[in-house]
Amino acid sequence: MKQLHKQSSINVRRDEEIATSKSSQYSPKTLKHPRSLPRSIHYLLKEQRLLFVLVGILIGSTFFILQPTLSRLGPTEPRTSIPRSFQVSADLPERDQVSSVVPKFVHGYGRVPASVPRRRLRIVVTGGAGFVGSHLVDKLIARGDDVIVIDNFFTGRKENVVHHFKNPRFELIRHDVVEPILLEVDQIYHLACPASPVHYKYNPIKTIKTNVMGTLNMLGLAKRIGARFLLTSTSEVYGDPLEHPQKETYWGNVNPIGVRSCYDEGKRTAETLAMDYHRGAGVEVRIARIFNTYGPRMCLDDGRVVSNFVAQAIRKQPLTVYGDGKQTRSFQYVSDLVDGLMALMEGEHVGPFNLGNPGEFTMLELAEVVKETIDPSATIEFKPNTADDPHKRKPDISRAKELLNWEPKISLRDGLPRMVSDFRNRILNEDEAKGF
Ligand SMILES: NC(=O)c1ccc[n+]([C@@H]2O[C@H](COP(=O)([O-])OP(=O)(O)OC[C@H]3O[C@@H](n4cnc5c(N)ncnc54)[C@H](O)[C@@H]3O)[C@@H](O)[C@H]2O)c1
Q1: What is the four-CA torsion angle of 301, 366, 135, 166, rounded to 10 degrees?
Q2: pTM of the model as a whole
Q3: Residue ranges of region Disordered (predicted)?
């Protein structure tokens, strides 16, 4: 073994000697000598090598010249929907500037030419099994979007969305927004909250928790996933208004310790949270202040004046008027509201925007329209008014008209008959279930 090793080291040394003796005959250093320049030129000119070099240079420079143009023509990289730049409208007073701060990008993407088909969106509707939510879901599904409804069914009903159950673009999740949830969506319509006084006063602590913690959770989700967030606030933020009609610039007259404050102050806090997430975390928010809305699928006995009157007239009961009946309200048909909410979500303005029908009716006038539509022989019964009931309510919708190009189309006399058959069927089913 030792011998073998010795032999191989001798061989290595011999190889080294041979190499040194060879190098003495041929020195590669001579190549670098200036006298070899003609030889290099000769090498370059031989076998069209120069031509290949020139063609290479030409291809390289063509690529670098065209590259920026090509990258502009290629598909746009999706940008984060957290707006990086804002524009502020100069025609509003300073205190309202924040409401007109608009993100430059819609849906978090660069502007696309009109001819490019719209991307299908995935949208969450909290409270989507309720009255307004279910109509919104219908319209979003009809537009071709994917919709996920989150609802705890406190006032909502599966029947309101049952017609979508077989649609693969529809999902229903039983969930309480007071608890956090993680989903991947483009837009969040946040409606979850009981809307009628009967329901929101039933458990006021739960109502304010829904408004504060529920809104916080959904805003947190919007921030995390870069989704656009729309809050359905209410005309109740104006309380018993001292300004008439109410503009978005009016700060309201709300009793902070009254029986309605779980709802009124809850919604005011929800608006505050939305604006703070917008200013502080760059979340794209939209705020709608909804005025009285009516239509099919309203809860039958929820204490709201239109549903009360219609149900009472169908059941042949006297129509209950609280107080002297001279307090005024405006009534908006639900499809008008849904159009307004979608225009707001798709538009570039944060709001808040009043969404309501400016037609103003006293309770007694409304009772007359219900009598004309359903039962002219119906009678009226007066009862003492409830606490903190506002005397007047009428939206000024000039801002929505101008910036969202939206205004309601359906008058009370046209809208009321559209909800009567739905109410009749449900009252009939209820009576059958009770064995009448
Ligand atoms: N309808 C109106 O006239 C009117 C007026 C002003 C504001 N709004 C607002 O519009 C939204 C929808 O109102 P609506 O009339 O459809 O009321 P609704 O009671 O019919 O619908 C509310 C829905 O939210 C659900 N919900 C309630 N609490 C929840 C919770 N903690 N977690 C998950 N789901 C919950 C209910 O089950 C229901 O499906 C509400 O935010 C309401 O404040 C409505």
Answers
A1: 50
A2: 0.75
A3: 1-33
